């Protein structure tokens, strides 16, 4: 497929860093990141939405949206943006209703199910999805207790992805590719683990490195520290932690419970989503919290995940 480089670059360009399709986002001076964009999963309307941090989270201010519909796509549980050589920027999404998939980010402001490049049903309440670069493999984390690996016959053809491996991980909630270590991190019940990736295409396999960090509770979110490539940020039942990737140690930075998403921007600002314990969907909340900026509340919303709208890995 021919790349629409200019459209992709325009669609994802952010004050912090301009996107060149087919290349990773380069970090710029943090003074340019004051009004960076946030991408969220909103479960009331079941949409993935992008907003400028410094604007109200209203329909009129939505920079982009993706609405995959209902059925297996209900209760959107994860989203992230990655860069590819063939398509430019793509979106990865997981839904607790059972589906995971990839959609093609175009210049269109409001996107729907027909923009999907690929989808699958790994089962077990999918909570996260990640792409392994160069290989093009996809890994989904399902809270039913496993990781599912999908391998393609060609990196440039997501439609060729098929299940090639299932890896047991009780309570699997998060996955993250680490370009520095060349590991895939995964978080589950009382553990954060690192896996190597062997093989290519349909022969792609995860192998447990034996390296892990023990947690006290059920692991929830797993994100890079965009201000420090040597660290990860994770959440579990009992709080929020910084993880030193080399020493495999953790430091608790908050005792706040029910944190479903926690991100540190390259500027050092943190933002997070905490379940409000209110029906319906007590795991969600109408508010995205910021450490150095006004919190953003969308009336009637139930946010579950919030991410920095960037293709950067760390």
Automatic annotation (TrEMBL):
Q: Which InterPro entries match?
A: DUF6528
Task: Write out the entry's keywords from A to Z.
Answer: Signal
Keyword Signal assigned: yes
The protein depicted here goes by the name Uncharacterized protein
Lineage of the organism: Bacteria, Bacillati, Actinomycetota, Actinomycetes, Glycomycetales
Instruction: Please list which residues make up the signal peptide.
Output: 1-28
């Amino acid at each position: 497929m021919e790349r629409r480089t200019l459209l992709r670059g325009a669609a994802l360009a952010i004050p912090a860093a301009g996107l060149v399709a087919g290349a990773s986002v380069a970090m710029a001076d943090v003074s340019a990141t004051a009004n960076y964009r946030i991408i969220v999963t909103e479960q009331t309307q079941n949409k993935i939405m992008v907003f400028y941090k410094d604007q109200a989270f209203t329909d009129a201010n939505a920079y982009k949206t993706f609405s995959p519909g209902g059925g297996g796509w209900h209760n959107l549980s994860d989203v992230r943006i990655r860069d590819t050589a063939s398509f430019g920027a793509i979106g990865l999404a997981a839904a607790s209703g059972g589906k995971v998939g990839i959609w093609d980010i175009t210049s269109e402001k409001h996107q729907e199910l027909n923009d999907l490049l690929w989808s699958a049903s790994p089962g077990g309440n999918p909570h996260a999805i990640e792409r392994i670069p160069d290989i093009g493999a996809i890994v989904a984390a399902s809270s039913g207790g496993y990781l599912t690996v999908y391998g393609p016959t060609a990196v440039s053809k997501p439609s060729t992805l098929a299940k090639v491996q299932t890896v047991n991980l009780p309570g699997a909630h998060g996955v993250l590719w680490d370009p520095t270590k060349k590991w895939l991190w995964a978080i589950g019940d009382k553990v954060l683990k690192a896996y190597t990736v062997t093989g290519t295409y349909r022969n792609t396999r995860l192998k447990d490195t034996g390296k892990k960090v023990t947690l006290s509770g059920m692991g929830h979110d797993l994100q890079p520290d965009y201000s420090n490539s040597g660290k990860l940020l994770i959440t579990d039942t009992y709080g929020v932690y910084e993880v030193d990737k080399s020493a495999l140690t953790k430091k608790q930075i908050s005792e706040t419970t029910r944190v479903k998403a926690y991100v540190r921007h390259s500027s050092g600002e943190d933002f997070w989503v905490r379940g409000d314990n209110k029906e319906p969907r007590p795991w969600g909340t109408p508010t995205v919290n910021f450490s150095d900026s006004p919190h953003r509340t969308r009336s009637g919303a139930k946010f579950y995940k919030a991410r920095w709208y960037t293709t950067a890995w760390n």
